[in-house]
From TrEMBL:
Domain GHMP kinase N-terminal, first and last residues per copy: 97-166
This enzyme's EC code(s): 2.7.1.148
Family under the similarity heading: Belongs to the GHMP kinase family. IspE subfamily.
NCBIfam families: ispE, PRK14608.1
The protein, known as: 4-diphosphocytidyl-2-C-methyl-D-erythritol kinase
Sample GO molecular function, one term: kinase activity
Gene that specifies this protein: ispE
The protein's role, per its UniProt record: Catalyzes the phosphorylation of the position 2 hydroxy group of 4-diphosphocytidyl-2C-methyl-D-erythritol.
UniProt source species: Blastomonas fulva
Residue span, GHMP kinase C-terminal domain: 226-292
The UniProt record lists the keyword ATP-binding: yes
Pathway(s): Isoprenoid biosynthesis; isopentenyl diphosphate biosynthesis via DXP pathway; isopentenyl diphosphate from 1-deoxy-D-xylulose 5-phosphate: step 3/6
Keywords: ATP-binding, Isoprene biosynthesis, Kinase, Nucleotide-binding, Transferase
């Protein structure tokens, strides 16, 4: 969502870092470079983290973080928002034209991140934040870069970031950089419920636990094919590390009106797509009552 507000003279641009969900995730091969070739159907929820940026004229990039998952997230240079901002600056202005100029002075910003998504949870919060920073600063600094250039920058920072730059339904291959837009009927507007048992789970150990058995290609020709023959090959290794994922999936499966329930990414967040707004309302309330410690977010697919 793009927006613009004008507090007391300053221009502040806003981007949503849309939550990413893997409707299916097939792991095909462990590669020599330590990554895995995947085939995945990426969709995006209409809400997530929120990033605001205000122009500075001294070249400094500063980040502050608030929101329910701000605690424990470092606002220093390792944060993916600042790594993305610095990469964009270097890409757009690779070298100062002259030594001792104030090169880059106009490319500073105060960045404000509202962290609504749990960290290390399989819904790409950090990747979505980095992608939102690229889209936002591309506008704020008037870089004029197209999506392909922003994806190329994003790819150097994380496998999921190119897809998050686009934030529309995509079939994704390679380690995450090969993107094919998909327009699947009946998908946009579908109600989705995300549930996380409150246990962070790193991506690398889950890939490491994959049994290296190639279970075959992903048929992404229709939602029915994704429901009937799609899988998440990372579910077994994730459940071995976080057994609570089993309880989350059982709970989602048991809700009336579920079209599809599955784990997203490397976990531990699981999702369910629902037939109707009434069905998701009932499920959301029931799960919040029964499991008050679980994180729950409802939205609709973009
Ligand atoms: C599993 C997925 C599915 O969308 O999402 P998340 O669970 O992270 O949300 C992605 O492939 C995660 O992408 P991302 O989180 O950007 O991973 P990166 O930072 O690039 O890599 C972190 C680590 O995960 C492993 N990794 C990642 C991507 C990939 N295709 N193969 C891998 O083996 C590698 O061990 C790598 O060192
Ligand atoms: N802005 C950010 N939001 C979340 N995590 C971040 C951010 N910047 C850096 N990270 C780091 O990236 C790692 C992956 O985070 P995240 O993208 O939330 O995981 P996942 O893709 O599994 O949902 C975390 O361990 C965290 O320390």
């Amino acid at each position: 969502m793009l927006g613009r507000v004008r507090p007391a003279g300053a221009v502040v641009l806003i981007e949503t870092a849309f939550a990413k969900v893997n409707l299916a995730l097939h792991v095909r091969r462990r590669r020599g470079d330590g990554y895995h070739d995947i085939e995945s159907l990426f969709v995006f929820v209409d809400s997530g983290d929120v990033l605001r940026a205000e122009l500075r004229d001294d070249g400094v990039l500063a980040l502050s973080i608030d929101g329910p998952f701000a605690a424990g997230l470092d606002d220093g240079p390792e944060n993916l928002v600042l790594r993305a901002a610095n990469s964009l600056k270097l890409y757009a202005w690779p070298t100062p034209a002259l030594a001792n100029t104030d090169w880059g002075a106009q490319f500073g910003a105060n960045l404000y991140l509202t962290k609504n998504l749990p960290v290390a949870s399989g819904i790409g919060g950090g990747s979505a934040d980095a992608a939102a920073a690229l889209r936002l600063l591309n506008r704020l600094w008037r870089c004029g870069l197209d999506d392909a250039a922003l994806c190329a920058i994003g790819e150097t920072l994380g496998s999921d970031i190119p897809a998050c730059v686009i934030s529309r339904t995509l079939r994704v291959e390679g380690r995450g950089e090969a993107l094919a837009p998909l327009d699947l009927p009946r998908l946009a507007g579908t109600p989705i419920l995300l549930i996380n048992p409150g246990i962070p789970l790193g991506t690398a150990p889950v890939f490491k636990g994959w049994d290296q058995h190639d279970r075959g290609t992903l048929d992404s020709s229709s939602l029915a094919a994704i429901i009937d023959s799609g899988r998440n090959d990372l579910e077994a290794p994730a459940r071995a590390l976080v057994p609570e994922i089993g309880a989350v999936l059982d709970t989602l499966d048991a809700q009336p009106g579920v079209l599809l329930s599955r784990m997203s990414g490397s976990g531990a967040t699981c999702f369910a797509l629902f037939r109707s707004g009434a069905d998701i309302d009932a499920a959301h309330q029931a799960i919040r009552r029964a499991y008050p410690d679980w994180w729950a977010m409802r939205g609709t697919l973009r």
